[in-house]
Design brief:
The protein has eight helices and 14 strands. With 250 residues, the chain is an alpha/beta fold. The chain has a seven-stranded mixed sheet. Strands 7-8-9-10-11-12-13 form a seven-stranded mixed sheet. α7 packs parallel to α8. The chain is globular and about 55 Å long.
Length: 250
Protein backbone atom coordinates (compact mmCIF):
# COMPACT_ATOMS: atom_id res chain seq x y z
CA UNK A 1 0.00 0.00 0.00
CA UNK A 2 0.98 3.59 -0.52
CA UNK A 3 -0.21 6.34 1.84
CA UNK A 4 -0.20 9.96 0.67
CA UNK A 5 -1.08 12.83 2.99
CA UNK A 6 -3.58 15.09 1.22
CA UNK A 7 -4.33 17.23 4.27
CA UNK A 8 -3.36 16.90 7.92
CA UNK A 9 -4.42 20.06 9.77
CA UNK A 10 -6.74 19.59 12.73
CA UNK A 11 -9.98 21.51 13.35
CA UNK A 12 -9.46 24.02 10.54
CA UNK A 13 -7.02 24.42 7.62
CA UNK A 14 -3.63 25.99 8.24
CA UNK A 15 -1.76 28.22 5.80
CA UNK A 16 0.15 25.10 4.71
CA UNK A 17 -2.41 22.30 4.85
CA UNK A 18 -5.98 21.30 4.24
CA UNK A 19 -7.80 19.39 6.95
CA UNK A 20 -7.71 15.62 7.34
CA UNK A 21 -7.57 13.59 4.14
CA UNK A 22 -5.34 10.67 3.21
CA UNK A 23 -5.05 8.73 -0.04
CA UNK A 24 -4.36 5.00 0.15
CA UNK A 25 -3.45 3.10 -3.02
CA UNK A 26 -3.21 -0.66 -3.46
CA UNK A 27 -3.11 -2.60 -6.76
CA UNK A 28 -4.38 0.45 -8.63
CA UNK A 29 -7.31 0.93 -6.21
CA UNK A 30 -7.63 4.39 -4.65
CA UNK A 31 -9.28 4.78 -1.25
CA UNK A 32 -9.61 8.21 0.39
CA UNK A 33 -9.74 8.41 4.17
CA UNK A 34 -11.74 11.55 5.10
CA UNK A 35 -12.27 14.72 3.07
CA UNK A 36 -11.99 17.74 5.36
CA UNK A 37 -11.90 21.46 4.57
CA UNK A 38 -9.74 22.20 1.54
CA UNK A 39 -8.98 18.57 0.76
CA UNK A 40 -10.67 18.37 -2.64
CA UNK A 41 -8.38 20.98 -4.18
CA UNK A 42 -5.25 19.35 -2.82
CA UNK A 43 -6.45 15.89 -3.82
CA UNK A 44 -6.27 16.87 -7.48
CA UNK A 45 -2.48 17.10 -7.16
CA UNK A 46 -2.49 13.34 -6.63
CA UNK A 47 -5.33 11.96 -8.76
CA UNK A 48 -8.13 13.05 -11.06
CA UNK A 49 -11.52 14.07 -9.76
CA UNK A 50 -13.07 10.85 -10.99
CA UNK A 51 -10.20 8.48 -10.22
CA UNK A 52 -11.16 7.63 -6.65
CA UNK A 53 -12.63 4.16 -6.11
CA UNK A 54 -14.01 4.54 -2.56
CA UNK A 55 -14.18 6.98 0.37
CA UNK A 56 -14.14 6.28 4.11
CA UNK A 57 -15.36 8.96 6.54
CA UNK A 58 -14.18 8.37 10.09
CA UNK A 59 -16.83 10.69 11.53
CA UNK A 60 -19.02 13.61 10.58
CA UNK A 61 -17.24 16.63 12.02
CA UNK A 62 -16.68 19.24 9.31
CA UNK A 63 -12.88 19.01 9.34
CA UNK A 64 -13.21 15.39 8.22
CA UNK A 65 -16.09 15.45 5.76
CA UNK A 66 -17.18 18.93 4.62
CA UNK A 67 -15.44 18.83 1.22
CA UNK A 68 -17.77 15.98 0.33
CA UNK A 69 -20.22 18.77 -0.56
CA UNK A 70 -17.86 20.18 -3.17
CA UNK A 71 -17.12 16.66 -4.39
CA UNK A 72 -20.85 16.08 -4.78
CA UNK A 73 -21.01 19.09 -7.11
CA UNK A 74 -18.09 17.76 -9.16
CA UNK A 75 -19.74 14.35 -9.57
CA UNK A 76 -23.37 15.50 -9.94
CA UNK A 77 -22.75 18.34 -12.40
CA UNK A 78 -19.93 16.66 -14.32
CA UNK A 79 -18.55 18.96 -17.03
CA UNK A 80 -19.34 16.50 -19.84
CA UNK A 81 -23.05 16.73 -19.02
CA UNK A 82 -23.41 13.32 -17.42
CA UNK A 83 -23.26 12.38 -13.77
CA UNK A 84 -20.39 10.31 -12.49
CA UNK A 85 -21.21 6.75 -11.50
CA UNK A 86 -21.91 6.29 -7.78
CA UNK A 87 -18.78 5.81 -5.71
CA UNK A 88 -18.89 3.77 -2.47
CA UNK A 89 -18.85 6.01 0.62
CA UNK A 90 -18.40 4.33 4.01
CA UNK A 91 -19.43 6.43 6.99
CA UNK A 92 -21.27 6.46 10.33
CA UNK A 93 -25.02 6.18 10.68
CA UNK A 94 -26.74 9.16 9.07
CA UNK A 95 -23.92 10.19 6.74
CA UNK A 96 -26.22 10.78 3.75
CA UNK A 97 -28.66 12.86 5.78
CA UNK A 98 -25.89 14.92 7.37
CA UNK A 99 -24.32 15.79 4.02
CA UNK A 100 -27.69 16.55 2.45
CA UNK A 101 -28.59 18.90 5.31
CA UNK A 102 -25.21 20.63 5.14
CA UNK A 103 -25.63 21.23 1.41
CA UNK A 104 -28.89 23.10 1.94
CA UNK A 105 -32.59 23.15 1.10
CA UNK A 106 -32.08 23.28 -2.67
CA UNK A 107 -31.05 19.62 -2.74
CA UNK A 108 -33.56 16.80 -3.13
CA UNK A 109 -33.35 14.16 -0.41
CA UNK A 110 -32.16 11.50 -2.86
CA UNK A 111 -29.65 13.57 -4.85
CA UNK A 112 -26.55 12.58 -2.86
CA UNK A 113 -27.26 8.89 -3.43
CA UNK A 114 -27.19 9.43 -7.20
CA UNK A 115 -23.41 9.87 -7.09
CA UNK A 116 -22.52 8.37 -3.67
CA UNK A 117 -23.26 4.76 -2.78
CA UNK A 118 -23.58 5.06 1.01
CA UNK A 119 -22.60 2.20 3.33
CA UNK A 120 -23.10 2.46 7.10
CA UNK A 121 -19.98 1.62 9.10
CA UNK A 122 -20.23 -0.49 12.23
CA UNK A 123 -17.47 -2.20 14.19
CA UNK A 124 -16.31 -5.14 12.16
CA UNK A 125 -14.43 -6.41 9.10
CA UNK A 126 -15.29 -5.88 5.45
CA UNK A 127 -13.62 -5.55 2.06
CA UNK A 128 -12.99 -2.26 0.26
CA UNK A 129 -11.77 -3.30 -3.16
CA UNK A 130 -8.58 -5.34 -2.65
CA UNK A 131 -8.17 -4.01 0.91
CA UNK A 132 -9.46 -5.68 4.06
CA UNK A 133 -10.81 -3.09 6.50
CA UNK A 134 -11.33 -3.50 10.24
CA UNK A 135 -13.23 -0.73 12.05
CA UNK A 136 -13.72 0.02 15.73
CA UNK A 137 -15.56 2.73 17.62
CA UNK A 138 -13.18 5.14 19.35
CA UNK A 139 -13.71 7.81 22.00
CA UNK A 140 -15.03 11.10 20.60
CA UNK A 141 -18.16 13.19 21.23
CA UNK A 142 -19.80 11.85 18.06
CA UNK A 143 -19.84 8.37 16.53
CA UNK A 144 -16.27 7.98 15.30
CA UNK A 145 -14.23 5.10 13.91
CA UNK A 146 -10.63 4.12 13.64
CA UNK A 147 -9.79 1.85 10.72
CA UNK A 148 -7.15 -0.78 10.04
CA UNK A 149 -6.35 -1.50 6.40
CA UNK A 150 -4.59 -4.72 5.40
CA UNK A 151 -3.24 -5.69 2.00
CA UNK A 152 -0.43 -7.95 0.88
CA UNK A 153 0.54 -8.83 4.43
CA UNK A 154 0.97 -5.15 5.42
CA UNK A 155 -1.16 -2.98 7.68
CA UNK A 156 -2.03 0.69 8.09
CA UNK A 157 -4.10 2.03 10.98
CA UNK A 158 -5.77 5.45 10.98
CA UNK A 159 -7.03 6.66 14.35
CA UNK A 160 -9.53 9.22 13.12
CA UNK A 161 -10.32 11.51 16.08
CA UNK A 162 -10.19 9.93 19.52
CA UNK A 163 -9.21 10.23 23.12
CA UNK A 164 -7.28 7.44 24.81
CA UNK A 165 -8.91 4.26 23.53
CA UNK A 166 -8.36 0.59 24.28
CA UNK A 167 -10.08 -0.19 20.98
CA UNK A 168 -7.40 1.79 19.12
CA UNK A 169 -4.65 0.02 21.09
CA UNK A 170 -5.96 -3.34 19.87
CA UNK A 171 -6.69 -2.20 16.32
CA UNK A 172 -3.11 -0.90 15.98
CA UNK A 173 -1.53 -4.11 17.29
CA UNK A 174 1.70 -4.76 15.29
CA UNK A 175 0.65 -2.29 12.57
CA UNK A 176 3.30 -1.37 10.04
CA UNK A 177 2.23 2.27 10.27
CA UNK A 178 -0.04 4.05 12.75
CA UNK A 179 -1.41 7.35 11.46
CA UNK A 180 -2.49 8.85 14.74
CA UNK A 181 -4.08 12.11 15.73
CA UNK A 182 -2.23 14.31 18.23
CA UNK A 183 -4.30 17.46 18.51
CA UNK A 184 -3.59 18.36 22.13
CA UNK A 185 -0.43 19.40 23.97
CA UNK A 186 0.70 17.23 26.87
CA UNK A 187 0.28 19.12 30.16
CA UNK A 188 -1.94 21.80 28.60
CA UNK A 189 -5.28 20.39 27.44
CA UNK A 190 -6.85 17.62 29.48
CA UNK A 191 -10.27 16.86 28.05
CA UNK A 192 -11.10 13.14 28.14
CA UNK A 193 -12.64 11.34 25.19
CA UNK A 194 -11.90 14.11 22.71
CA UNK A 195 -8.32 14.10 21.38
CA UNK A 196 -4.88 12.66 22.05
CA UNK A 197 -1.75 14.64 22.78
CA UNK A 198 1.67 13.76 21.41
CA UNK A 199 2.63 11.72 24.44
CA UNK A 200 -0.61 9.74 24.35
CA UNK A 201 -0.17 9.05 20.65
CA UNK A 202 3.33 7.76 21.40
CA UNK A 203 2.04 5.62 24.26
CA UNK A 204 -0.63 4.18 21.97
CA UNK A 205 1.98 3.22 19.38
CA UNK A 206 4.22 1.71 22.07
CA UNK A 207 1.42 -0.34 23.64
CA UNK A 208 0.34 -1.60 20.24
CA UNK A 209 3.85 -2.45 19.09
CA UNK A 210 3.32 -0.41 15.92
CA UNK A 211 6.41 -0.29 13.71
CA UNK A 212 6.08 3.37 12.72
CA UNK A 213 4.12 6.37 14.01
CA UNK A 214 2.98 9.38 11.99
CA UNK A 215 1.37 12.20 13.98
CA UNK A 216 -1.47 14.04 12.30
CA UNK A 217 -4.52 16.29 12.95
CA UNK A 218 -2.40 18.90 14.73
CA UNK A 219 -4.27 22.24 14.75
CA UNK A 220 -2.52 25.47 13.74
CA UNK A 221 -2.47 26.64 17.38
CA UNK A 222 -0.59 23.53 18.56
CA UNK A 223 3.21 23.35 18.24
CA UNK A 224 3.91 20.15 16.28
CA UNK A 225 7.54 20.01 17.41
CA UNK A 226 6.44 19.75 21.03
CA UNK A 227 4.12 16.88 20.17
CA UNK A 228 6.88 15.20 18.19
CA UNK A 229 9.27 15.35 21.14
CA UNK A 230 6.58 14.13 23.53
CA UNK A 231 5.83 11.13 21.31
CA UNK A 232 9.50 10.26 20.92
CA UNK A 233 9.93 10.34 24.70
CA UNK A 234 7.66 7.31 25.13
CA UNK A 235 7.82 5.48 21.78
CA UNK A 236 11.12 3.93 20.62
CA UNK A 237 10.22 3.54 16.95
CA UNK A 238 10.41 6.08 14.12
CA UNK A 239 8.05 9.05 14.48
CA UNK A 240 7.16 11.57 11.75
CA UNK A 241 4.93 14.59 11.54
CA UNK A 242 2.38 14.29 8.75
CA UNK A 243 2.90 16.90 6.04
CA UNK A 244 0.95 17.63 2.85
CA UNK A 245 2.21 15.55 -0.10
CA UNK A 246 4.32 13.28 2.10
CA UNK A 247 3.99 9.64 1.09
CA UNK A 248 4.82 6.32 2.72
CA UNK A 249 5.26 2.89 1.19
CA UNK A 250 3.74 0.30 3.48
Amino acid sequence: MKLTVVGCSGSFPSAESACSSYLVEADGFRLLLDMGNGALGELQRHCGLYDLDAIFLSHLHADHCIDMLAYFVARYYRHDGGRADPIPVYGPEGTEQRLTTAYGDTLAASSMSEVFDFHTVKPGTFEIGPITAHTELVRHPVEAYAIRLEHGGRSLVYSGDTGVSEALNELARDADLLLCEAAFTYGKENIPDLHLNGREAGETAARAGARRLVLTHIPPWTDPQVNLLDARAVYPGPVDLAAPRASYEI
